[in-house]
Design goal:
By secondary structure, the protein is of the alpha+beta class. The protein has 23 helices and 16 strands. Strands 1, 2, 3, 4, 5, 6 and 7 form a seven-stranded antiparallel beta sheet that branches. Strands 10-9-8-11-12 form a five-stranded mixed beta sheet, sandwiched between helices. The chain is flat. InterPro entries: RNaseH-like_sf (IPR012337), RNaseH_domain (IPR002156), RNaseH_sf (IPR036397).
Amino acid sequence: MKNVRKNFCTHFLAQLITPCGSRLLSWKDLRFLKRVSNKGSVPAWFNYLFNLIVILNSLSFFILQQFRIPSSHTVASISFIDISRNYWFNPQWAISFNRNTNSFLVGRVITTYPAPRNEALISHWIASSVDDLLSEFTACQGCASAIPRSSTSKTLIKRCPSEGCFSYVLLLSLIRYPTKPRTYIHADTRSVSLSASLGYAKSLLLFHLFAPVRLPPTNELVLRISDIQLPSSVFTLYIDGSFLSPPSRPASSMAYAWTAIDSDGFILESHYNIISSIFPSALRSEVFALLHGLDSLPRNSKITVATDCAQLLSLWSLYVDAPFIFRMLKEFNHLLWSSIRTIMLQKNLDVTLIKVPAHADDPLNNHVDALAKAAHTDSHLSSCPPSELMAPCILQFNSLPVDMNIRKFIRDIFDAKSLLTLAVLPRFNSYSSISDIDWACTKFCLNNNKQFASHRNGRSEFCGFRIKLLLDMLPTLTTLQRQKPHLYNPSWLCPQCNSFPETLDHLWTCPYILPEFSPLQTFKTLLLALQTTYLDHFLSASSLMPLPDSFAAEFMALNCWDCDPPSISCLRLTRGLIPISLTEFLGVYFSSPTIWSILDTPLHDFHFDLYVQIWLCRSIFFHHWELAQGITKKMKSSALGPSSILRPSSNIPLDSSTPSLATASLDSWVSWVSSTIIRGGSWISHLDFWHRLTVQPLLKTSFW
């Protein structure tokens, strides 16, 4: 799953179809256009898309009517014929369309002629197959459209020994055939394979010749963000944004303000308002102030915008005062920047941004700053709807605009759904509610690839041990009795102590025959070492507030350190599930990143010590015990034997606890991701669905 997310790519359907909007591009064409990876075979998602939208048995990949896209919304990369070397030999592969015969002509441009002729001499090549998805061509040796060889330059003809059919074509009806820059031909008239299919080249030419001109929208249809129309005498615009985050307010709040100044320094108009809570941040309030101010200007304005935000100036020079770059779409607030670019183009604005000192002696900047702060407390204001943006394309999630890197956003959706699926597994709520687990911290420790997936000392089995420990899937005797009751008698107890069933929790509490060598004593020693390591790290870490003298005593008194007998929190910590009681106590004094980073590495080392000092020793003992019982490796790998009929799984002794199935709404992850958009931060910080979980008792069955 990690590799899938790493290579995850998002496409619009318009990127995968021909410019005319009626046919799906072949995988070969998509590779040539660099819209997909150039490695590997055709992926499953493309085959699924093909079966979904392409007309059945269509050899040319024509798509169903409901999936066709207007040509005004498709992607067309057209290259024109190079006319910089008129009269000279300048070979270029091209395609043209004859309006009189309604036929296409593919060939190689030999040379071009300037006005008044505006023609190109082209050699005619014929497709080797009627299939438009292919790109094999052979030189035509003569047809009705050919001109006599004697009417052309002998010098040019000598450069084309394998071509025998030439014609003159108007430059207006020619475009370059999409292929690699250097496609050589052979003197023995062998066929030539061009990069793109003939079908794509035809679609590109038809789009160039017949697609309607994309006119800019009229003034009546232009979407406005601001309902204010400033006079043409505006000379300077002061802008500012304000952002208040918890705990200063119950929820994040953004506001903006601007003041229009004329050339004499008089205030023409001031405006302030609050902003819809979408990806709240201080920078977003500054960008929106700029957007609203520019939309209030008249057409053809030349204005200076003053701001005290240095980051705004930096992003302006990168995303507005420069040609468009795709990097902008990976940034937060790219919808706002796209709207600013649209306004600049529609209104033909000439804007210069300048930096003014923040909180200095500039009265106008102080004035607009006070207006932005006052907007938070004005109950008569109403925010602008988040949908009223002027970006060319606005993606929405749960009716909220996605103003961030779309690939990262989709990855967050998959992560949220995966965590929900994991958290509601019955194995995590055998003893108490899963709300007792800090899933945000647990996920951080699981996703720390450097620690979690490392093969320490060359032992690749340790990674598997941690995963099985977390999921309660270690092959203990109780688990084997459920899986292979014909080999492991359900009445057998722990081979080491012969007193209790060998469950996962019993691994750490087994008294053993010799108490001084018991796993329980080893577990106590390792847990005490983990507690001491954590305490030393937190005492030396930078805290949000001074630590009280009682911090160490309160930390050591947490129930996650109770190991004789082990508490539920202690057993969950042993599995790698961070108790919420631990992080809530530490959260009073430390930030979440500090807590998570400190808890991660010692927990990894604690698990490694459990693996070496308890699990490996137990596994060696268990192997010899199996041999003593006559259980061989061949028997364990075989299918169920006839004895399983005499020993039904219902005779397996039950654990003392009855697991429960925690159920949550299947769309709980939607509220997490929506909270990310509205309240900001990572979705992992909005796991409030635990309070809405219901627990249903289940019959005692095997969940593996």
